[in-house]
Amino acid sequence: MADSWTYQAADGDEDTLEEFDYKNQKDALLFCIEISPSMLVKDEAGSCPARTALESAYSVLQERIISSYKDVVGIMLYGCAKQTDKAFGGCYMLLDLDVPDAGGIKQVRELLDSEADLAATFAPAAEPVSMANVLFYANQQFTRKTPSFVSRRLFLVTDNDCPHEGDAALQKSTRTRATDLFELGIRIEPFFIQSPDHPFDPYKFYASMLSAREKYVVADNDKDAGELVPISSLDGLQIKSAIKSRQTPRHAVFTVPLELSPGLSIGVKGYVMYKRQQPGKATYVYTGERKWKVAKSVSKTYLNNATPADGGTAVAVKREDIHRGFKFGGEILAFTDEEIASFRHFSDPVIRIVGFRPRDAFQPKDNMRPAYFLYPSEEDYVGSVRTFAALHEVLLDEDKMAVAWMVPTTRGAPSQCLLVPSREVVETHNGRPLQVAPAGLYAVPLPYADDVREYPPKQTNATAPDEAIDRARTIIDKLLMPKGYQPERYPNPALQWHYRILQALALDEDLPAEPEDFTLPKYKSIYNRTHEAVLDWREAIDNFMGSGDVVVKHEPKKSVLGKRKAAP
Predict the structure, then answer these.
(1) Helix (H) or strand (E) holding 539
(2) DSSP single-letter state for residue 291
(3) pLDDT of res. 43
(4) How does pLDDT run across 86-121, given as a tens digit for each residue?
(5) Which of 5, 254, 339, 455 is deepest in the core (most CB within 10 A)?
(6) Cα–Cα distance list, 436 to 245, 339, 374, 427, 503 (Å)
């Protein structure tokens, strides 16, 4: 099953994946939270698993309303006394599956702030709800409101490891409804809750129900969507972190054949692991009516760079009379869009291995841009997973990397790249396995001769004394970061500040006093660790320079604008 979207570059622009707008890949996310007496048992902090799951959904809503304004999110409670449709007893749509708006987010926030309203909403139903009805109701929500979405996911939060225990007919019906979702490309991502008094055994029922998923989502590299490790109900932070880690869908930016040799190819998908996030562009808004509307801009091209508004006699030029051109030797060469597309087309999309190199031959300075992560796909080539695994294992065992010629998309420019293997790294966080680094191949784009720049000229042959080097080494050792820089721990302060201001204004919240910046140095800790070593280092430098105190003064630059008068 091929991707249902196609990247459309601007007229005449090259297909550059770095400039791809990922927001075109709309995501539909439906939270299905079970309401039962065991899901309402409070922990020491006074919270319960159902409330924690709803708080997680509220957090996702807050982020999506600004950062992913085209995505849709819904919240369904099942097993509760309230119901939206009598045909689906025990199913209550707390928030319809739609693009989040300020009104819906306020509704969820007010519910969380009112213990009485929350208790009334969380009142369990007198009779157990049919899981087949729950999945069928979710199916209808997706089918009616998100029929053409690329990503559609159902977050199932439950602590019942065997619904309809003893009723084979109802369990079979539930498995059938789950398979119906999988066939439509809708993924079920379970979050199993357990407690010391109520352990969760996923192999009683859900393992068999989710087994059909592999037939439909194996090409999406979504192995952790069927995570069967239960979450402790006593740790609300663990529940929230588990949901947050899976809230962002993963989309392949290209699918190409990986040619190992003439006549031998396998299918791979390419993923972008890092993409710089920036605030959305401001749009012009028409405020002349009661309900504001986004203004649509219309552009026109005039001859002689003069417009009727300037009093000129310029004439508007039709779109078909305009062609793209390039300046060459003082002349202008014009081409049609088809001609430009033809001479920019080098090859059909492919990654072709041309040789191998020792892994230590790779130098970080040769990396042109963030690498693409490659993972096998069985969509077009059966046996790709096994062949890819064999190539990956051999490269690791031999400590080698492959040199390849890559054209990722139809309109993409060819580039040389290195296929560098990576080992899977799994760590345990809060009792759950967490994949820190995936196993696969990284396609690292290499520069061409035209891209190489000269090194700056060497200015001096200055050397430092051994004593100063040793003392500098002491400072470095004291400030060593054992795990290095971990980007997931440092949100972009400027981006988060922008979102926080918009969120406060949209939801009528108090404006924050100052941004929260986790990138600020921990000055007190740095001082306590290194102030003695820094003084020793300074002493060694001063002794080497032949003076007791070296002070460098810089004259302040004068402003060319002069002094500005203070505001009255």
Answers:
(1) helix 523-545
(2) S
(3) 80
(4) 888 889 999 999 888 888 888 898 899 999 999 999
(5) 254
(6) 12, 46, 16, 7, 31
CB burial class (10 A; 0-12, 13-18, 19+) of residue 337? exposed
Two tokens, residue 244: 């947050």
Are the CB atoms for 440 and 374 separated by under 8 Å? yes
Q: What's the pLDDT at 214?
A: 58
More confident residue, 513 or 234: 513
Residue 390, phi-psi category: left (phi > 0), alpha (psi -120 to 50), beta (remainder):
alpha
Concatenated DSSP letters of 7-51 = --PPTT----GGG--GGGS-EEEEEEEE--GGGG---TTS--HHH
Q: What is the DSSP string of 396-458?
A: HHHTEEEEEEEE-STTPPPEEEEEEEE--EEEEETTEEEEEE-SEEEEEE---GGG--PPPPP
Tokens of 143: 């089918």
**Which pTM does this prediction carry?**
0.68
**Helices 102-113 & 49-67 angle (0-180, nearest 10):** 160
Residue in 227, 205, 157, 212 with CA at minimum distance from that of residue 181 = 212
**Rounded to an integer, what distance in angstroms lies between the CA atom of residue 296 and that of residue 459?**
55
Q: Is 65 helix (H, G, I), strand (E, B) or coil?
A: helix
CB neighbour list of residue 68: distance below 8 Å, 6 or more residues apart: 23, 27
% of the chain with per-residue pLDDT over 70: 81
